[in-house]
Amino acid sequence: MTVPARAYRLEQISPRAYQHPADRAATAALEQIPYLDAVLRRLIQLGYERALRQFSLGAAVRLGERQLPHLWVLHREVFDVLDVAEVPDLYMTAFPFANASTFGAGKPTIVVNSELIRILDEDRLRVVLAHEAAHVLADHVLYETALLILLRITGSGLPVLAGLPLMALRAALLEWKRAAELSCDRAAALVTRNPMTVCSTLMTLAAGEAAEQLDLDAFVAQAIDYNESGSGLERLSRLFLQLGLTHPLPVRRVHELLAWVREGDYDRIVGGEYLRRGEEYTLREEADVASAHYADRVKGVFRDAGSSIQDIGQQLGEWLSRQGAGDDDG
Fold this sequence. Notes:
60% of the residues lie in helices and 5% in strands. By secondary structure, it is mostly helical. Strands 1-2-4-3 form a 4-stranded mixed sheet, sandwiched between helices. A hairpin with a 5-residue loop joins β3 and β4. 37% of the residues are buried.
């Protein structure tokens, strides 16, 4: 196991320091929707988050000093590197798909699937845990929890959801989620101080086999080929392929991460030059080409769902009023 120096800590690092422009654009679009946060918190108040938490307590194992202590140590280490004092509970559940998730708007909880433990060594497990810790630091948990709730109850016909613009809201949160994953991949590279281990982890998760049996250079070449080659129709097909996914495709994640490393931000941050918490609002909002591109893409999500930001905001406000929570939560 390769352990970063214990003195290595990104003191008071702001999530804005490594935020992907797609994440910045998607978050800004969600923040423009009137009543959105109030509605999402109302959904959580209705008990859906409580059900998720009780499932974790009842159908998973809480890890700690007596349950897989080596994993618990890695979990605490990554939060220490990100300079986050409060470490969330960590659970493991039996599931044949290698994944991890974070939920809990008030009290974050991280759940790892047992398949991760089977196929990843400790260096790559640290990558996964660092990625989830970055979600906590960036305060992604409200949107993450709301998306998880919507994915589970969409199409269930629950009367309480009548009047919500479910498809547009689900599409917008999915676009945000895919963008947020790119930011957290960057954070995992910073925590582990090894971007190639992040790429190796993504390759292993994609293949479902031990990384020692795979060729990372070939996978990186595949990522370049996927992102930079193909006809216009093939590129359009790739876009549609991702629309229903919670995560970008692994090859795209590798490409985006390595492009960021080549730009120099990774080395600069590891060297101690980065935005710290509390400094975010002293900066002028970026207006670069990348941010504008992703902002247009996010707006396209609403158009494709047959709504606008204003339409969704109005529907959310009407739903909130019918729930009798408009004055309290809005």
